[in-house]
Amino acid sequence: MKKTLVAALVASAVTAGTLTAPAAEAVEPSTTATATPVTTTANPEQNPAIEEEYTPLEIALGLAGAIAVYGAIAAGTCWAMKQGFIPNPAPKYIPCHAKPKPAPKKPAPKKPAPKTAPKPTPKPAPKPAPKPAPRPAPAPAPKPVQRPVPVPAPAPSRAYPNCRAVWNDLGRPIRSNDPGYGSHLDRDGDGIGCEKRPK
Question: Where do the TM regions start and end (predicted)?
Answer without folding.
Answer: none
